Amino acid sequence: MRTFTYDRASDVAAAVAGFAPGTMYLGGGTNLVDLMRLGVAEPERLVDVSKLPLRDVEADGEGLLIGSAVRNADLAAHPLVRERYPMLARAVLTGASGQVRNMATVGGNLLQRTRCSYFQDVTKACNKRSPGSGCPAIEGDHRNLAIFGHSTPQQAPQCVATHPSDMAVALAALDAQVRVAGPEGERVIAMPGLHRLPGTEPDRDTVLRPGELITAVRLPAPPPGASAYRKVRERASFAFALVSVAAALDVSDYGAVQGVRLALGGVAHAPWRARRAEEALLGQQADDDQFRRAADAELAHARPLPGNRYKVALARNLIVAVLRELMPR
Amino acid sequence: MAEITIRLNGTDVPLSVDPRTSLLDLLRERLGLTGTKKGCDHGQCGACTVLIDGRRANACLALAVAQDGADVTTVEGLTSAGHPPDGENEALHPLQAAFIERDAFQCGYCTPGQLCSAAGMLAERGPSAVTADLTADPALVPEEIRERMSGNLCRCGAYVNIVAAIGDVAGSGARAGDGVRATERAGAGSGRGAP
Questions:
Q1: Which of A196, A221, A260, B180 is deepest in the core (most CB within 10 A)?
Q2: In what order do the strands lie in the sheet with A57-60?
Q3: How is chain B split into domains, by residue range?
Q4: Which ipTM did the prediction report?
């Protein structure tokens, strides 16, 4: 590991004011410390923001205000999250392990890097880690990687990484707002807009500017109806998603869909809000035929690679199954 | 080098550390506390699990320099921190006694991490990924224990007995968080001595 200096920030203003090129903010360290050990991250200076007074979860009008230094475990265990945002509690609980959830922060969860094996191996080329060096995953092992958003008809893929967070998928479905403080002041970024698609700059995971620090996540009122988070993975616990679905469904007394939220995890460089599926379903009869039609409306835009075509069928089946589960009984 | 003080198994330890040092390497290489094991060194196996401020954590992912002022309990400190001793063997934490009783290991390499993880887990409130009703603190049935302990791998595959041993200590009908008092005493509380 390359040498670095360590400072514990006393407040947000000091953390941001002290930022210089080579500085990285340290939350729980569950991803960053690992990446430093792997040689993927080489900060010159760490500013520890995990002890900042950003550690509360509190009601905020109809919504909820979550400090960015709140531990994942505390977020999932919070009574207001469990009662009002079960999709979020479930998403956080399906991520990582008990130990990691005790350490990991909300801000760090959002800013964790892809687990693409080429990105994490400094002996391999990787356009995300070393822009211009190439992407071995496109021809190589991409079983777990993206099916959406990695390319356009005009532009071949440069990176097919997925964002690994479960929590971010729920936040995308919940229309969360990410509050950041930076050298140029404070601003608010609406999810899923924090994360970006790789395009020609796959080294940039998010729209954050140098020095910007996530201070809080605000949730608006929970969507009406029922909600759920469901994750498919290669083992029953402590594994990243192959595909996950965050969904909320509100059905009228006459059986029509009057509200729907759908976001997918494990399929793109960012949490994937399935707006085409939402649009296809809104106002329609809430039944399996319409659920399938909505899923197909989204998945028609998938661009799977040879080794991850299974994700198209998996995502389709998962969307239909979760929506069915959310039907009023 | 950075100057820090860690409260380690009930004793304040002033240290000068290289910022690159993990808590795990500090414990094993500098302080001679080799009970905490290094398995994967990536936070995936749980062999290095300790309690930091009473909560289980992967010592391999924790920078020592970031633990200034923290209260750290390792497997060596599980008993010394004032937990009521087991009836038959006063040197053992009830979880250690239960692991022996249930033969919850083969090689034993993962055991210190399993023990610290279980001690932390029994103090945690709230649901897990397998809890049906998110608003209730669920009973610690085997399915709950398996999910909550998924951050600790056992290459020998002694899981069946590990789950049974933890279940013995949780007690039948125990609910998430019931272990909070026991673990506060066993864990970070330290230094307060026996009740």
A1: A260
A2: A57-60, A63-67, A213-219, A177-182, A185-190
A3: 2-77, 94-186
A4: 0.96
